[in-house]
Structure formats: C-alpha cells, structure tokens
Automatic annotation (TrEMBL):
It comes from the Eukaryota. Monomer and homodimer. Interacts with small ribosomal subunit protein uS11. Not a structural component of 43S pre-ribosomes, but transiently interacts with them by binding to uS11. Interacts with COIL (via C-terminus). GO terms for molecular function: AMP kinase activity; ATP binding; ATP hydrolysis activity. This is Adenylate kinase isoenzyme 6. Signal peptide: none annotated. Keywords: ATP-binding, Cytoplasm, Kinase, Nucleotide-binding, Nucleus, Ribosome biogenesis, rRNA processing, Transferase. The lineage of its organism: Eukaryota, Metazoa, Chordata, Craniata, Vertebrata. It is found in: Cytoplasm; Nucleus, Nucleoplasm; Nucleus, Cajal body. Its EC number is 2.7.4.3. It comes from Neogobius melanostomus. One of its GO terms (cellular component) is cytoplasm. Residues 36-59 are annotated as: NMPbind.
Length: 172
C-alpha cells in the first residue's frame, strides 16, 4: 500500500517526556497538522471499556485508526501518542521515540498514581516503546531523541524541523 505523499511522522515515548510540547512546536514551524491521540479519543469517545488498575479508559485502537485513516492518507501530519505500534506501518515516514532518564520521569510523575509511576519507570528501563517501534517499522525510520532538559527539547525541535523541511524539499 502507498505511503502518504505528504510527510507524516509519529512522536512517541513514555508519558511526561515532552511529546506534546515538541509535536506542537514542530507542527507550527513546518505547517504540519498536529494530532494528539489522547485528545482525539476523548473527543470521539474512542474507548473500549475501562482499566480498573490504571483507572483510565482503554483505547479502542481499531476505531482510532479508522478515525485517522483519511487524514493520514492525505498526509502532512504529526501524531503524538505514547506508543506507535498500533498504527499501520504505511502511515509514517519517520518515527521519533523520546527518551528520558528515570529520575526525571520519577519527579514529573510523582503526582500520578504509584502504579503508573512504577510501570513508566520499568517501561523506560525495558525500552518497551523503542523495541515496539523497531518491530513495527523499518529500523532506518526510527530515531531516538534524548529528552531530559529544556536544551534537549530545543535541539529536538530544531532537528525535527530540519528533517521535515529536508524531506519536503526532496519529495516535492
């Protein structure tokens, strides 16, 4: 199946790592459309039951994919979600996985429930998200970016904007 002919990228990583700030900033500077999966699911109530342990609704992945399909075929989109392996492989030209060291994540999430905290820290240790990304997409389109400091955020923004502009130039 054809990939979209306008740039599509995914920004993923554990909760609290700065995906939203980065995604919005890059979208603004490149003219790409920013889509936050959490917000999309909430607006369309794209849920399939409720997770008692995590005290949050369960995402209905098929409905999320259906909801986005048309937009993704048109392209020109940045998708923000903590995972990326639920999306069709053909959607993305590039996948960014943001990493943070555990202590940073710990302080940021202290206010959340402990279960989430432990799971996020473990998730980070096991690099679950990165591994899922590498399994779901061709390795050369998956890029890890460190996201611990405001400087990192700035550098990541620059890097992603440059990458996007380069891609657009080459493919137009």
């Amino acid at each position: 199946e054809m990939r979209p002919n306008r740039l599509c990228c995914c920004v993923s990583g554990t909760p609290g790592v700065g995906k939203t700030t980065l995604g919005k900033e890059v979208a603004q500077r490149t003219g790409l459309k920013y889509v936050n999966i959490g917000e999309l699911a909430e607006e369309g109530q794209l849920y399939d039951g409720f997770d008692e342990e995590y005290n949050c609704p369960v995402l209905d992945e098929d409905r999320v994919v259906d909801e986005l399909e048309e937009q993704m075929c048109e392209g020109g989109v940045i998708v923000d979600y903590h995972g990326c392996d639920l999306f069709p492989e053909r959607w993305f030209h590039i996948v960014f996985v943001l990493r943070t060291d555990n202590t940073q994540l710990y302080t940021r999430l202290e206010t959340g429930e402990t279960v989430k905290l432990q799971d996020n820290v473990q998730c980070e240790i096991f690099q679950t998200i990165l591994e899922e990304a590498l399994e779901a997409y061709q390795e050369e389109i998956v890029h890890q970016l460190p996201s611990n400091t405001p400087e990192d955020l700035e550098q990541n923004t620059e890097q992603m904007v440059q990458w996007a502009e380069q891609w657009i130039k080459e493919h137009n």
